[in-house]
Amino acid sequence: MTMNKMMIIGNLGRDPEMRYTPNGQAVTSFSVATNYRYTTADGETREETEWFNVSVFGRQAETCNQYLARGRKVFVEGRLKSRTFEGRDGQTRVALDITANDVRFIDTASSRSEDFPGEPGRGGDEMGPDDLPF
Prior knowledge:
Number of strands: 6
Largest sheet: 5 strands, mixed, barrel
Structural class: mainly beta
Number of domains: 1
CATH class: Mainly Beta
Number of helices: 2
Helix content: under 10%
């Protein structure tokens, strides 16, 4: 028996982008950043950020596209796949892709600006967890 299961909690790095497969199924893609803070032996605080590309399919893809935006905090569960590619500078790079089975919205619209200090809110009516259709 084998298992490939990835669970992350992080912030959207860009607004979701939705497209459709040739058979009409919705696919939404977005990036999620996770942070790890630690203190070195010298007492210096450091932070490392990992980026994940997330793809969501079907009805959940439509919901993510409608309600998520850059800076929102999400929980993502799915399969991990790594791929290598050549960057513009000619260096080989690794991308971490997650095909999501489940995406949960953790924060409310009003807390988005706290995730990215200095960014203005997006305005409009604020939504709470009870307003979501799932």
